[in-house]
Description:
Strand order of the largest sheet: 3-4-2-1-5-6
Shape: globular
Helix content: 25-40%
Largest sheet: 6 strands, mixed
Number of helices: 11
Oligomer: single chain
Strand content: 15-25%
Distance between the termini: 23 Å
Structural class: alpha/beta
Amino acid sequence: MFDTDKKYFIYGAGDVGREVLYCLQRAPHNLKIEAFLVSNPYAGPDAGLEETIDNIPIISFEDLEYGQDVEIIVAVLEKYRDEICMKLDFAGIKNPILMTFESDLWCEERGKTYAHYRQEFEKRPYQLLQDGIFHSKPKKGGQKQLLVYAAKSHMDKPLKEKVSHHAWDQDIQVGAALTNIRIAHLTDCSGDHISEKNRQYCELTALYWIWKNAGAEYGYLGLCHYRRRFTLSREDVDCLTSSDVDVVVTNPVVNVPDVLTMYGKNHILKDWETMRDGIRKQCSQYLDSLAYVETSNYYIPYNMFIMKREVLNQYCEWLFPILEYCEAMCEPRKDAYQNRFIGFLAERLMTVYFYHHRERLKIIFSKKHFCE
């Protein structure tokens, strides 16, 4: 989608902009970025802002000389997107390339960079479900049933777009024990559950419910969110459920300079140290894998997956004791966002687990869609 005859500028000099730069400068994109753009007024170095990122200048959008050969890549959090797009539109710049944090395009493009990294440096294949690798005629018999649960909360913001429902997905209300409001037929407060822990565990209360209560007829079980959904066709589902794939996840998130540094920047680093201590005490053989993830640039996000039932059972048997240790050792937070620390840690733990079992498990990737 990139034209080497064009001049590319990244609008946004924050974390998302740095991550987009990281990917676009590398194979298979190998794109030259002219400059980072920031909104006016540009405060300059006297306000503590950098003048460059990786030797690429940061300039005010007002100072940009643009023409037919200029392409603007918007790389910010979604909450800034519309304001920036309005500014671009007012300046006569139409159809910017939207690589905001949650955008489907950014997910796909960082997947391309990760695919090259995985194949070139880790010597492991990268397979995307939608690429047609598994689009052969399904075998007769032996096909496993799939059910993907979509976690929903009564606190969720309304969606602007209509979400399609399929035979292979079902909504589950999380944190249902904390409210009398009901937004789904299925809740995470029935059977064996930890629904009351939802403020810390987030969508993991749904994972726990699935682990303990999901029907035995399903050979593949999945979890997604009300806003983040796997992009699956009927053909994708048929071929997956007749394959030998163990796990399907979304493309990893990029962290620059590394996963541990960015966790400490966005969350509470002491929680990570507690998690490391829990691994040391309960399953020390995973410490090398944790160290690898800490210094890498990628982690698998959102606690979002499709797994064979037996793989899910093994994963949950490993995961929840570590999370329970972290819960016991860490105090609840007054800040509602940081109080979700168990969910944040679990995203990185999923990455640790799958890296540790990279030789045993067949793991492939899937596109996702972020619902507006």
